[in-house]
Amino acid sequence: MEAANYPLFFIHISKTAGSSFRVAAERYFGKEHVFYDYGPKANETNPDIRTLDYEKRDRYAAGMKIVEKAKFLTGHINHPKYAPFIPAKNAITFVRDPIQQVRSHYEHFTRHHRYKRSFTEFVNEPRFKNVQYKAFQGTWPDAIGFIGLTERYNESLALINKMYSIDIQGLDINKNTEKKSSSYELSDEEIALIKKHNKEDFKLYEYALTRFERQKLAIESDTPFIRFGKTNMAASDEGKMIKGWAADYNSQSPVVIDVRVGKKKIAEIPASEYRSTANERNIHRNGFVGFSFTYPKKLKNGEQIDFFAKSSGELLLSDSIGR
């Protein structure tokens, strides 16, 4: 894989092995090249960020200072905050089984933040709901450079090192030493409550499991990893057309998409349309990664239409005609 330009941007989601990764990154890059942003009151927050962003409220100046000096940026911050300064391909995060993440988050708050309420009250508080999903804040998940899995931390770290041509070593810190097993045991009622209040986190985690295998295959075989997804369109257009995006971060050429019905190819389209979200989130090609396709009238209702990446033959999206 092609090495990334610095800085790397690690989105540290609470209780997903982020502390181990950030400390290991500091040892690799050196303290002077690692910038932290954990808010204006945190001792870890870089002085330049505290002064320029939080005191002078000049995020542009803070961002330019990061680009100038940092090789690694991290904090409990969402992706859009620094997206204008750092390409999405350089963004890294870890996600975790929401059941374990929520319980671990609660235990952390009781130990380190003097949280006195019950676990049920914790789960019901809005600020603790879908915290993993909130870290993306409108960025298409597939645009993030690498999404690791806490449960497969060492494997994730090896893939990160290969993808970005770095050599961060594994560490194991900030764990609950009072926990007797590797995972928390919760009652059926507690699990049901977590599922009720963290639906977006569960969707994200299921997506990340599939995405991990796709990206692992691409990294290990040194083949293109095509990122893709649907984009917003009018409800009245559903079943009549599709709008989406696709990008290959290792190429400045648009991804070419083969459109097929069954085994028959009916069109070939480039993902080269402008998408404002892609531009705002610094995803690729200044936002020119979109595609749209209106379904031919000769196709019958219920017929399936498939969209493949021409370069790899990978099935990206499927839809069905429904006028």
Automatic annotation (TrEMBL):
GO terms for molecular function: heparan sulfate 6-sulfotransferase activity. GO terms for cellular component: membrane. InterPro entries: Heparan_SO4-6-sulfoTrfase, P-loop_NTPase. It is a single-pass membrane protein. Keywords: Glycoprotein, Membrane, Transferase, Transmembrane, Transmembrane helix. It is found in: Membrane. This is Sulfotransferase family protein. It comes from Alteromonas portus.
